[in-house]
Amino acid sequence: MLRHTLRRTLKSCTSSVWIQSRKSTIPSQSLLLETIPKENVDCVVIGAGVVGIAVARDLALKGRDVLVIESAPTFGSGTSSRNSEVIHAGIYYPPNSLKAIFCLRGRKLLYQYCANHGVPHKQIGKLIVATGSSEIQKLIVLLSQGRENGVEGLRMMEGFEAMRMEPELKCLKALLSPYSGIVDTHALMLSLVGEAENHGATFSYNTTVVGGHLEGDSIQIHISQSKNIEKCIGGCPPQPELILVPNLVVNSAGLSSPSLAKSFKGLDSRVIPPSYYAQGCYFTLSNNKTPPFEHLIYPIPEDGGLGVHVTLDLDGHVKFGPDVEWIGELDSISSFLNKFDYSVSSDRVQKFYPEIRRYYPNLKEGSLEPGYAGIRPKLSGPGQPPVDFIIQGEDINGVRGLINLFGIESPGLTSSLAIAEHIGLKFIG
Ligand SMILES: Cc1cc2nc3c(=O)[nH]c(=O)nc-3n(C[C@H](O)[C@H](O)[C@H](O)COP(=O)(O)OP(=O)(O)OC[C@H]3O[C@@H](n4cnc5c(N)ncnc54)[C@H](O)[C@@H]3O)c2cc1C
């Protein structure tokens, strides 16, 4: 019902809004807002990535009326379809951080969900490897951090033992993480969307949140059809076509969350963290009839990422990546419309060969082909210490019913169901 109302309202209001704004010479923002149709809604989730979808499902299961606004023509076309598809065990994150807590809880929920809903996944295990003696200490630190986080089954192995498990591997020592795995991310999102819709959630695609404003201590959300804001890139700010008056708003716009929060007029800018973007490219292994490895193979983490690792998908295809390249910010409309540059330059492959050969010496020259790229929504820049996930409610931002999710980088996929559970428990009850 809401879906139809929304479509009808968006269609019919487009022309009247533009006519109104052309008639008056310089309409003030508040005058202009008065001319725009308004709809009352219960919960608005901005962004249909894996986190937004998981939140929408959780709210719908709790009996709330949920409207998901997604700028793209379908769900999951942002970072959620541009990652390693690894179910992380929870080793890399500082004890008691949200990343550690949500990764562990999310991993358990995810394995359970996949098993119960027929989502393809496999607990294939991971080896984190030290290839030089200077890396052994780092592996020991990871082991103790993982144990402190409560990760089960971690075991330090001598190189010969790891190399017996994986004959193509070369390393001095390895940390075995038996609970790491892989998941078909698209199938996961499809299943979550289906469940959310079955419980009454509405997904409005090709619809963009272009801003918002505060009325008293609550927020109203400005939306437009995505096709109508394309022309605003690099030009005038877009005029909203419809204003939503919600009880609850979850800003889970991924890479755009901070820019979107900046466009909420009246929101205290001090609650919006600085944002940084780190692109990561993947290269795939061509002509491999049998994958060289059965486990995920990860080097020691590097600044900004987990290192160029080996990931297998459920069809046995092998990819290596992602590397780390810091990139600049986009203007807000381009970022809402996901106009980031995701091309993979074949030049970057030259950096991949030596990095991979440190643990896979038999990698043949010419065997890597450009794959895809993803962009990490980071809250710390190059050389700065990593920053935790931010899940920010009214207690911090002062706006009734507004929840901002900032910096949901890895392990965001693994954590998605736990983040949704947390929002449901902390903010809905
Ligand atoms: C290279 C890479 C590898 C990774 N590997 C892993 C891994 O192996 N395991 C793991 O657990 N995690 C991994 N992650 C992290 C994981 O992919 C993300 O944490 C997760 O996908 C984030 O989901 P999201 O829903 O928050 O964001 P997104 O998937 O980016 O979704 C945000 C959505 O919001 C929409 N949107 C944006 N602005 C607007 C607007 N104004 N109006 C309407 N819609 C809007 C976008 O179109 C998009 O669909 C990786 C990330 C990267 C970059």
From TrEMBL:
Report whether Chaperone shows up as a keyword of the record. no
Q: Which UniProt keywords apply?
A: FAD, Flavoprotein, Oxidoreductase
Q: Which reaction does it catalyse?
A: (S)-2-hydroxyglutarate + A = 2-oxoglutarate + AH2
One GO molecular-function entry: (S)-2-hydroxyglutarate dehydrogenase activity
Q: Which cofactors go with this protein?
A: FAD
- SUPFAM superfamilies xrefs: FAD/NAD(P)-binding domain
Task: Tell me which residues make up the FAD dependent oxidoreductase domain.
Answer: 42-423
Keyword Oxidoreductase in the entry? The reply is yes
Q: What is its EC number?
A: 1.1.99.2
Q: Which InterPro entries match?
A: FAD-dep_OxRdtase (IPR006076), FAD/NAD-bd_sf (IPR036188)
EC class (word): oxidoreductase
> Member of which family?
Belongs to the L2HGDH family.
Name of the molecule in the record: L-2-hydroxyglutarate dehydrogenase, mitochondrial
List the top taxonomic levels of the source. Eukaryota, Viridiplantae, Streptophyta, Embryophyta, Tracheophyta
